[in-house]
Amino acid sequence: MPSLCSILLPGRHPLSIPDFVTAAVEQEPHDHPPVDLDNCDREPIHVLGTVQPFGFLVAVNTDWRIARASQNLESFSGTAAVDAIGRPLESLFAPRAIVALRERIPVLIGADGVERLFGLALMDGAGLYDVALHFSAEALVIEAEPATEPPSEATGLVRAFTGRLRQAETMAAFLREAARQVKAMTGFDRVMVYRFDESGAGEVAAEATSPHIESFLGLHYPASDIPAQARKLYVRNIFRVIADVNAAPVPIIPALDGTGASLDQSLCVLRAVSPIHIEYLRNMGVGASLSISIIVQGELWGLFACHHYGPRLPSLAMRTTAELFGQLFSFMLESRLRNETAEYELRARR
Fold this sequence. Notes:
Elements: E1 50-51, E2 56-60, E3 66-70, H1 73-77, H2 81-84, H3 95-104, E4 114-120, E5 129-136, E6 139-146, H4 154-166, H5 171-186, E7 190-196, E8 202-209, E9 220-221, H6 228-236, E10 239-242, E11 250-253, H7 275-283, E12 288-296, E13 299-308, H8 316-349
Antiparallel strand pairs: 1-11, 2-3, 2-6, 3-11, 4-5, 5-6, 7-8, 7-13, 8-9, 10-12, 12-13
């Protein structure tokens, strides 16, 4: 079976693998050869230096001065990114917003911590924003997008969705119902459950689609299509959205800091997309994609992979609810797998 890197060509009909072919590696973008279809598994997607345009990014140093900003900052704040660099964050955000951000810093202590705030008045007279925070090296990365709906009551929604999962009697029904619930939450045209085997190869184990969409259920792909470094990134950042494959990525300035390092965007909500992966999605006719990692015993068991045949961006609040559902689904799946193993061992002893 050919690698996904070899089937990203017009006219071919590839299996839907979200962002696997653009694996993160610990190199700076100026230190490696150009990426093409032959070496796309080496592309450093964590340091592309761009964001998707549905929000903006600022990174502040320990003195709370702006060290980096996305070039679309002006369209959201009225302040050009180049003018914001070096200025205190207070010159951009409202005092109450900065207090709210500071209050979340203690929650970020620990590896890969990400915190979110919803409906925050970041700037005076500029409407409400949903905000995601995380640390990248010594910088606090602040990503914001306009709040499009009131925050949902995530706990109640997830409780209702997981309640339906508990009624599934078989593993096949369990996975199928999970795909249906993610589709109901996100509104994407296609939701698939990818399942990996012990060798790393995988299959589409369950699927929920809108009417008149071709099924991918049962399709397989080889382990070589999912590099080890890509798997590690999916464990670190379990949720990924690409809102519009035709949207131009927005550069972050400066591209390199004083030490010559790029901003590590591994945990960024707005992280832009590899041109290789964009080509891949366009060849499939996909307009937007979303993925939620399924983690069992600390390992990447599989993914919820979602495709939409036009642009689509669920609110950050709804994406957070879907992420929470994915985490609870992973716990429930781990419990089911443990019970299946125990039942098998019991039968074997009889």
